[in-house]
Amino acid sequence: MTDLIGYILYAAVLTGGGYLLAAHMIRVYAEERNLLSPLLAPVEKGFYSLAGIRSGASQGWRGYAMAVLGFNLAGFGLLYAILRLQGLLPLNPDGIGAMSPDLAFNTAVSFVTNTNWQAYSGEVQLSYLSQMAGLTLQNFVSAATGMAVAVAVIRGFTGTKDSGLGNFWCDMTRSVLYVLLPLSVILGLILILQGMPQTLLGAAHVTTLEGADQVIARGPAASQIAIKQLGTNGGGFFGVNSAHPFENPTIVSNMFQTLAILLIPVSFCFLFGRMAKDGRQGWAIFAAMSAMFVLGLTVIHLGETGGNPLLGAGPNMEGKEVRFGAALSALWAEATTAASNGSVNAMHDSFMPLSGLVTLVNMQIGEVIFGGVGAGFYGMLLYVVLAVFLAGLMVGRSPEYLGRKIEGREVTLAILAFLSMPLGILVGGAVSATVPMALQSVQDAGPHGLSEILYAYSSAVGNNGSAFAGWGAAEPWQTTALGLAMLLGRYAIIVPMLAIAGSLIAKQQSPSTAGTFPTHGPLFVTLLIVTVAIFGALTFFPVLALGPIAEHTALIAGQGY
User: Fold this and answer.
1) 304-350 pLDDT tens trace
2) Handedness of CA 310, 315, 320, 323 (dihedral sign)
3) What is the pTM assigned to this prediction?
4) Among the listed residues 169, 43, 168, the one whose alpha carbon sits nearest the alpha carbon of residue 494
5) H/E/C letters for each residue in 26-49?
6) In terms of CB atoms within 10 Å, which of 29, 129, 368, 525 comes out highest?
7) Contact between 383 and 359 (Cβ < 8 Å)
């Protein structure tokens, strides 16, 4: 009962916080005066002046997409250079050398795509400059890229005919200045008060009570952890991520971080309703996402609190921090894989098979149960297009959404975007399961070994970043292959979704009639969930049956795994 009350309070605070944040964000993206304008508007205008940006100039979908791709390519080049040259650069008190070319490629792609997959241990392989000027910078701008794209797509679905999708440079700048930066400052200060380090001093060398020498890593952690969670980035300052006591010191820090993971993704549901001038549309999508979230959390909670039947009664505490326990670990696992966050406060490799199944499905459906900041929402709009199309087929009418017809072009683009998930996961996983060099990364034989492969490629293509801990992520084959998978998962959805938005905004909106299929009620919510299940979860059912489902079957048969 205590766990249930905690979950309900979490949901209430998250929903209320998201609703209030959306009220601020609607003014931010409409370029209207907001609470932070007196302080930040001069900074914003200064950026535009230096960069030669005309804030009132709207872009078509091609211009918007080219701006996204060009900016991200430049960010990749800068981060790759920092990682390769960090041994020669300042702010390196521990004398850490350069990253290898393949690992630098993987890391640069990972942070530019908002994946934050980590094939390295941050405290021993990255300088403070790399952490701050490299990774933390990308934590802000990769998150802002997803938010900007989501706002552009929403404009395509809700804006007036031929009004354009907005300006990427303005949307990204305003996302950083008015949303990500203020929230990060607040959360960073809270985390420092909870005991998280924020210092430029090198590692501490201490003598233990037994007289041994111990090296304790530290650094500017709090500032990176704040944006890591708020931007659904997930990349940890320390190797064991949010299970590390310096990265997640207390239950209070744990709860603030768990809220931060989903705060902005939740707010996008309500922002959509405001931009559509029909709050019911946003609540409908929020309801669909929430129902899937609760279902996943229920399965993980029951699995982890019930424990391993072969070991007797009691929760499954393998791979978990005692200070968080099974329930808070379950909540974090569901939140971090429902969003494309990927941070962990417990090792998912040690979760029960059905818990691992839920985390896999969360990623394989495209991270649309709230998902990444912005990315989860435009991913869900992909399923909305498909759901409306199916509804039209069932009732024999031309499918419409928010007064615009969904036609062959939009459905084709949606299918192309969706296919990037099974293409990257199943093809990438199949190659990884057969090539000897790739198999070196797999720790366990049998179904669990297959789950490790599935998890790695689901995480990469879904831009999540978490992993089963036994996976050998630093093998050159995997650093390269997973880097390519991350690129596919990010841009093979962004570009088609912008194209769909561009196609829709060129159409005249029609008023609703008695025959219009309502997209704000329980029937639509149910249809949307079913569409996600059919196109998302069932696509991967055969391979899941050979991995976590087979593992669970063996467990209940008393065979172990």
Assistant:
1) 999 888 887 789 999 999 999 999 999 999 999 999 999 999 999 99
2) negative
3) 0.95
4) 168
5) HHHHCCCCCCCHHHHHHHHHHHHH
6) 368
7) no
